[in-house]
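Record S-adenosylmethionine decarboxylase, 120 aa.
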Amino acid sequence: MINAVYDITGCTTNPEPSELLNAMRAAVAQLGCTVLGELPVVFQPHGATCVLVLAESHLTVSTWPEYQLAHVDLFTCRADTEPENAIAPILVALGGRTVHGQRIGRLGPTGSPPVGADVR
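=>
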């Protein structure tokens, strides 16, 4: 299982939710995941949170254009490519300059850490 979170700073664009969802779909396609549902939520005066519910879990992107900031949360039990590479379409849509990411170790289905997980 992969749980990867990213803080994206220096975002130079404030994409429409439809554009952000398109970028998110491209990211999950690179991961080999299947989209089951979508939810875009727009906030006033600006900003959005978009969620893709995946057969393999979820991808969420929240934006704060007033701070040139976005957060990405990816949780999946499948990845045909590294998440850091797959989020490239999202970075392009946001015009993000700096990405700070981390993977969070999660327990496997048997209650033990997945192979190679850094769990402390």
